[in-house]
Amino acid sequence: MMPQGEKTSLKRGSILVCLLMLLPAANGRGAVTSLESDSLRVQVNNETGQWTLVDKRSGVQWPSDGTASPGNSSRLQGVFAASGDAQKNTLRLAGEKGGAVVFSLVDGGRALELRYENAGDETIRVLGDALTITDAQDGYAIVPSREGLLVPVKNDKAFKRMFGTSEYEGCHMNMLGFVKKSSALIVTWDDAYVFPEIERTVSGNEHKLTAVFELRRSARLVRLMPLGKGDWNTVASEYRRYAEGRGFAVTLREKIKRDPHVERMVGASNAKLWTCLNRRMNEESTAEESVKVQWTFDEAARIAEHLRKDLGIERCFFMMGGWTEGGYDVRHPDNLPANPECGGNEALADAVKRIQSLNYIGCLHDNVQDMYRDAKSWSPDFIEKNADGSLIAGGRWLGGRAYMVCAPKQLELAQRTQNLSAIHDLFSPWAYFVDTTYAVPPRECYDPTHPIGRNDDIAWKIRLSDYGRNLFGIFGSECGREWALPHSDFFEGLVGVSGHYYHQLKPEELGAQVIPFFEMVYHDCQVCYGKYGYRADEAAEYVAHHVLCARPLHYHSFPDHLYWQSRPEKRANPSADLACYTRSDNGWAEGLHPYDVFLKNTHEVLGAINEVTAYNRLTEFRYLSDNGAVRQAVYGEGDEATRITVNFGQTPVEVTSQTGGRTVLPPWGFLTESPRLIAFYATRWNGRDYPNAALFTLRPTDNKPLKDSGSIRIFHAFGPTTLVWAGKSYEVEREEVIKPWPQ
Ligand SMILES: [Zn+2]
Q1: N or C: which end of the chain has fewer CB within 10 A?
Q2: Protein residues with C-beta less than 5 angstroms from the ion ligand 1
């Protein structure tokens, strides 16, 4: 189909790049230009702009059949006139309606960039044809939304969904991955006005997966990076390389250098008191509907002391909500003084001091985006405006109807002397949390005195993050976005929501599977948790997901006051599979409050897994069973790697343990093996059967690899108490330090 012509090429460094202006086709329409590097070859019809991209390492072409459009908009209609620049590996096609599209090889010849000029205000739709995947090619798309979605072509659920840049449960990284015929490709972009739309159509037995990129307003380019043969692991590792070049991948080690307290976040569970003072206002914020003190500041500190002393929780990220005047999120952003109902400024300062004397990270929960009509500093001047000048309202929360503070005004308010700096001076928490900042979609404001677009909104929120982090040392916000990684330390909500993988998105409606893609790209870069409360007696799948992601849990449903001193009604059925982590039979937490049982069991497992993986990426993710139920994640590489296997299925499965041989995992069972950690919830391990399953962890106390260690702490959560190690049997009810070798 492509006409043949003479080739000229030029070498630049080690990367072959060439631009060929080829002769017109016999029908007189469509001379073809070729752009080529070591990894790809693009052929573009100079008159129609139709193009193809060949991944030279795999031989796979995008699109598989026919050619791809240069983009759809009225300015790109008609015939193009071509001009090339061999030095820049660029072909520019000027359309007769005024628009132009520029094809360039960028990133050392690794990627093809499509850039649009003179597009005016028009929205351009592109790549819908280029990225089509059908049954014949087999394959899938990877969507970086929270942990990540794998959307296979072969599924009978038809759907169409926009995953807008930085939207709530949209694309949380500026990329999408595609694999067909075992050949991988990444699409990247920079602008928050890019709106990718993924669609699966189903016709009888035929399935088709497409991704259209809608480029609105300032969004004028996309890049395609073919990766050769590969899968999701290739997409993740190549994207990490790219993200490092863009400055996103600031690692935890670098963040610890920035502020040494970050090290205390490694392996730390997230305890959050929600909310100390719980006051609910009416819609207009004029009348109180209910008010309740759930914890005084003294009680908050006593809970932290209970976790440390009674439960032996060494690492905890301890957050308090509702400390503000009025209670969260009443009368924001006028926070001070700390509310007298819970004890006032002095009691809060004392609580933070006591919490941090346990070496826990003390954190206060704030919000500078929502403003209420009863706030002392309420002014419409701060609020985002619609194009008609009306105020943009937010959600109906405890404080009443919230109004959205425009991002530059958020920073202005946060920087007032009575806001963050006064809070820092009074209470000195090591960490600060500003709610909703990373969670909401990028904003637009039409107030003539502070107009912003989506990219400005992100830029202002980055400044707010830097301000908060420089003041307190550790900074985080809700959900999490890639652009926030260099400017923050933790995300609350990335890993899951309310005991589920997503908040509103339903993977099953997309015929999609959740994969730990975020961990494959950024595990070593950020402290991450889920958000909102959930039921411990239904949490087994949620715990299994956190095991695979190597992330500690969030505990946001603490009972009121000094809860462990009272006996709650028993409603859990610990024998049900989904309630397994509430068990304490014959184990460490037997007889303790149910909330503490779940917290201790899961902290011992997830905190330990996070500690041994925190400085590594998830380097290899794979399915060990055809039905996708048995999943394995390897963090790090070589002898130091941590291997995590989890059974997400409804029936027991047998896996092979490097240290314990034939191992049987019940539903939601797992096995983690690392040089310095073994943890399992299994019905068989190391030659021992555990009817009804047992949960153990083994960690050296001398920091030697377990196989060489002369001192190993064994933790037993529940189930039969016998553990076999190095050929010897030990009975461990709660915890023991064993000495496997003669000293
Ligand atoms: Zn504004």
Answers
A1: C
A2: 406, 445, 447, 450
